[in-house]
Design a protein that fits this description.
Length: 735
């Protein structure tokens, strides 16, 4: 039965006899034959070559990578090698076999000599178990069989699903807290003192939102918007932001413990990747000389400059989105539709968010090509080094793609737009956007909600539908040929391998990016869940619901829609852990800045404890935030408008109007209150970040990375091995 198991299948078009491609294919297959590989050819619409490696290759691998302490004990004992290890070794040899023309498989693939190379989904017990008990939508709340995943897909894929399951499990706690904060916000929807003041401000006339056709408007017109803002922006949000900063640390520390437990059970805790790579190089070619570590300062400088250039381009795209919103606001404000005129700012933010999502989709593809190009320039020594370099670059590009626009809305919107009579303009024509008098946090909330919802609906649907439809189309294309085979070539159709190889070929292609894409998607989601969570407390809940489906979606894709992924050995999630730790620090900084700058929390606290009736009049019968809205508005004289601002003559009698800022009425310079609030914002930011980082450090110290039970188990195993060796040596000494 083992004789009919094939490690890999190579697929090629049927080339003309004597053609250049056919010659190159023959040379490559001859090289494999010299190494002792068994090759089987099956012809259909394509040529299929099954390859099986000789036993000696795996015996060499087991001998080279056996525990040094146990090598002396039983030099002839060769236990059965796991299928995942077998596939990994054969994959390495295939991609590193050099033909007489000094060409590797990668070069032959580029020249279309071979079309596809893949290991087979075998009809084994583990696969059937995973298909029935894991890769089904109905198992959405069932615990994942990590050990079985490892047996079929290898350690790297198993660690991805272990990490994703652990992340989703702990996300459940954050989701509950976020939901409680949001519900608490909804309960104050109608009772907030600030909302009441805005809703009752029937006599407060505000500056127009654009230069032409825009009317003056009453502050009370935006009553609902104000209620929504204060539903998001309240004291609970501050506590939740602090909670999420601590949660991010606890999650990573607990994951380190979980990973140590899992990896020790796999006997990989002190596995050396470099030793494995050198062993496989020697198995493939005994004359192989190891590649030296190299570093070029010139190359590093060029790559750094190119990375900075790419970041500048991504920030430029964020600026383009700002310009779109500015122009869209002006156009919506001049629309014939009353609804569009009234909701001009909200509509501009919402359409801008959709446009931002489209740029994310497009730039993700561009970022990948640029990151790959930069990695090729670096010439990394090993596959894992290449993967690490690529990960850092693409995450950096994706971070700026996803967050540049959000950073602008959170920290710059409404703060760099000038004031009535002296607005900052784009191309001297369009005014920059302003914040609503109730704050900018709702704009950030809308942007995050739309992007997260679109990413988790459209992206996930496409992620499933595209491979599913591609699989169905490939199967449909193969059907006519099968009938002709059954009728005209009965003998060939009987070959048991043919159907299996064809069905595997019809599945979706897998490559280096297949698992990487899943990790990147989750890490970007983790960024959304932690960095600006103060503005969107429902982010963990959305992420939690998404991940329940994501686990099964990834499982179905791997088991049913794609070819078998090449198993890779790993004892952790690699450089992603450092990326997650960096996001944890960014989460502290980001949430601190959102509360200090975007939120109205600090100005309100300054007002309550300095300027409110409670302080100035020692009153206890009123809410201490009474009068805050009026305090946060500044007065502007209509005659000071810029010349090209059209003002209706019927409203010239008003003499004054108001806008959100802390400026003097005479020369429009900043008031003492502005500097007081500025100092309070800065003080809070420093205190919040230091307190949160201290809590993170304490949490990291308090929760050990490796559980004591794991250390004890490792120590007992060492002790047992040494005792066995001593027993083996003692009788030898007596002879």
């Amino acid at each position: 039965q083992d004789e009919e198991k094939w490690d890999f299948v190579l697929v090629s078009d049927i080339h003309e006899v004597g053609s250049k491609k056919e010659t190159k294919r023959k040379k490559f297959l001859d090289e494999l034959s010299k190494k002792g590989f068994t090759i089987k050819k099956i012809e259909d619409k394509k040529l299929f070559y099954g390859v099986r490696a000789p036993k000696q290759i795996f015996q060499k691998y087991q001998w080279l990578l056996r525990n040094p302490d146990s090598r002396l004990q039983s030099p002839d004992a060769h236990s059965n090698i796991p299928v995942t290890t077998r596939i990994r070794i054969v994959n390495f040899i295939l991609w590193n076999t050099v033909t007489s023309d000094l060409e590797k498989l990668q070069d032959l693939m580029k020249k279309k000599v071979f079309e596809a190379v893949f290991p087979l989904h075998e009809k084994e017990e583990v696969r059937e178990f995973l298909k029935e008990k894991w890769a089904r939508w109905r198992d959405i709340f069932r615990q994942q069989p990590i050990e079985k995943i490892r047996c079929y897909f290898g350690e790297k894929v198993a660690l991805y699903f272990a990490w994703l399951g652990w992340y989703t499990y702990l996300l459940g706690f954050a989701a509950v807290v976020g939901l409680v904060v949001s519900v608490a916000g909804i309960t104050v929807f109608n009772s907030s003192q600030l909302s009441k003041e805005i809703c009752e401000a029937n006599n407060t006339v505000m500056c127009p939102l654009c230069d032409q056709k825009c009317p003056f408007w009453l502050l009370s017109d935006t009553c609902t918007y104000a209620k929504v803002t204060h539903m998001i922006d309240n004291e609970g949000t501050v506590l939740f932001a602090m909670f999420m900063a601590i949660w991010a640390t606890v999650f990573l520390e607990l994951w380190k413990r979980q990973r140590a437990t899992v990896v020790t059970d796999w006997d990989l805790y002190r596995w050396d990747e470099e030793e494995e790579e050198l062993a496989m190089e020697l198995i493939n070619n005994l004359q192989h000389e190891p590649r030296q570590y190299q570093h070029s300062y010139l190359r590093s400088t060029i790559i750094l400059l190119l990375v900075l250039l790419m970041i500048a381009v991504l920030i430029g795209i964020a600026h383009a989105l700002v310009i779109y919103r500015v122009i869209a606001t002006a156009l919506f404000s001049q629309s014939d539709s009353e609804f569009l005129r009234e909701q001009a700012n909200t509509m501009a933010v919402m359409t801008g968010a959709v446009l931002h999502y489209v740029t994310i989709v497009i730039m993700t593809k561009v970022n990948r090509r640029v990151a790959l190009f930069l990695c090729d320039l670096e010439k990394p020594r090993t596959f894992s080094q290449h993967e690490n370099n690529f990960t850092v670059k693409i995450f950096t590009f994706q971070f700026f793609t996803n967050f540049s626009s959000l950073i602008y809305i959170a920290f710059f919107l409404g703060r760099i737009n000038g004031h009535p009579g002296n607005y900052v303009r784009i191309a001297g024509k369009w005014r920059l956007e302003e914040c609503h008098p109730s704050g900018c946090i709702t704009d950030l909330f809308i942007q995050m909600a739309i992007i997260m919802l679109l990413k988790q609906t459209i992206s996930n649907v496409m992620e499933y539908l595209i491979p599913w439809m591609a699989h169905k189309i490939r199967k449909w294309r193969q059907r006519p040929k099968k009938r002709s085979v059954m009728l005209g070539e009965e003998e060939e159709a009987e070959d048991p391998c043919k159907r299996q190889w064809l069905s595997n070929y019809q599945l979706g292609e897998v490559n280096f990016f297949s698992l990487f894409d899943e990790f990147l998607e989750m890490v970007i989601q983790y960024s959304f869940t932690t960095i600006f969570v103060a503005a969107f407390p429902l982010a963990p809940l959305l992420a939690f619901c998404n991940n329940l489906f994501e686990i099964r979606l990834d499982a179905i894709k791997m088991m049913r829609l794609r070819r078998r992924i090449v198993p890779r050995k790993a004892n952790d999630i690699g450089i992603w852990l450092q990326v997650l730790e960096a996001i944890g620090i960014l989460a502290v900084i980001g949430n601190g800045l959102v509360i200090a700058i975007t939120s109205d929390f600090i100005p309100m606290q300054v007002y309550k404890y300095t300027y409110s009736p409670c302080m100035t009049e020692n009153r206890t019968d009123v809410d201490c935030s009474t009068g805050y809205i009026n305090h946060s508005l500044s007065v502007f004289r209509i005659q000071d408008f810029e010349p090209h601002t059209q003002v209706s003559e019927t409203l010239l009698d008003l003499k004054i109007q108001e806008y959100r800022d802390y400026r003097n009425a005479d020369d429009y310079s900043y008031t003492v209150q502005f500097w007081h609030i500025f100092a309070a914002r800065l003080a809070f930011l420093i205190l919040f970040e230091h307190a949160a980082l201290c809590v993170k450090l304490i949490a990291a110290w308090y929760v050990p990375d490796v559980p004591k039970s794991v250390k004890n188990r490792f120590r007992e195993r060492k002790h047992s091995n040494l005792r066995k060796e001593l027993r083996w040596v003692m009788p030898q000494g007596r002879l």
